[in-house]
Write a structure and sequence with these properties.
The radius of gyration is 18 Å and the shape is globular. It is of the alpha+beta class and 205 residues long. The protein has helices at residues 29-39, 42-47, 90-107, 150-158, 166-173; strands spanning 4-10, 13-18, 77-86, 113-124, 135-147, 179-187. A hairpin with a 2-residue loop joins strand 1 and strand 2 (13-18). The strands form two sheets. A four-stranded antiparallel sheet has the order 4-5-3-6. A two-stranded antiparallel sheet has the order 1-2.
Length: 205
């Protein structure tokens, strides 16, 4: 069993760090941990494939295949973020994603990003009964990014301070009444693109 040590960013957010791999990323675990601690992402820093590239569950360039004939983005790496904010913070949250999108558009091609979407909707009180139509006073954002391999995601986090969105993002995520969760560096197991479907697909302009 590997030895670990506890580094406490605050009494509220202890972060486990693997000694051997502490300096693997150009954004150190300590620096990213300060960000993650504010977001309640201790488990990401401690065990995410972003910082544990040797983890057998993390596909490398050569291993990212889910089947002999993968479809869509199967075998690539995804990050899925769900951010729920109070309605009065909708405009400033939209601004965060405006800046985030622009940064990705300008920089992420060489880093292997192949897909990026942000969708938002008022939070339903009864999501399994959408016909009810009742909503809370919050907005749900779902952000989905796909990278060809884990190196691109590592690069994303190493350079995220350049995106002109991070401080505002952390502030929004940690505001009382908002909530945040993330699926970090996970293999895409099921995916379809228009070319993979048995019917024609068109997009809204």
């Amino acid at each position: 069993m590997k030895s670990t040590k506890q580094k406490t960013i605050s009494a509220e957010h202890p972060i486990s760090v693997d000694d051997k791999n502490e300096k693997r990323s150009s954004l150190s675990r300590r620096d990213f941990g300060k960000i993650a601690a504010g977001l309640g992402l201790a488990s990401v820093v401690g065990s995410s494939s972003v910082f544990a590239q040797e983890n057998k569950g993390s596909p490398s360039h050569e291993e990212s295949k889910t089947s002999a004939t993968p479809e869509g983005y199967e075998g690539n790496i995804a990050v899925c973020t769900v951010l729920i904010v109070k309605e009065e913070m909708e405009k400033e949250t939209d601004n965060v994603w405006d800046n985030h999108k622009q940064w990705l558009k300008e920089s992420h091609g060489p880093w292997g990003m192949v897909s990026y979407t942000v969708a938002k909707h008022k939070e339903l009180k009864y999501p399994l009964n959408p016909e009810n139509g009742e909503t809370t006073n919050r907005i749900v954002y779902v952000i989905h990014e796909v990278y060809r391999h884990i190196d691109g995601l590592n690069k994303h986090y190493a350079e995220c301070r350049d995106g002109n969105y991070l401080d505002e993002f952390i502030r929004i995520c940690t505001t009382e009444g908002n909530s945040f969760t993330v699926l970090q560096g996970a293999p895409v197991t099921h995916s379809l693109l228009p070319k993979d479907c048995d019917f024609p697909i068109t997009f809204n302009s």
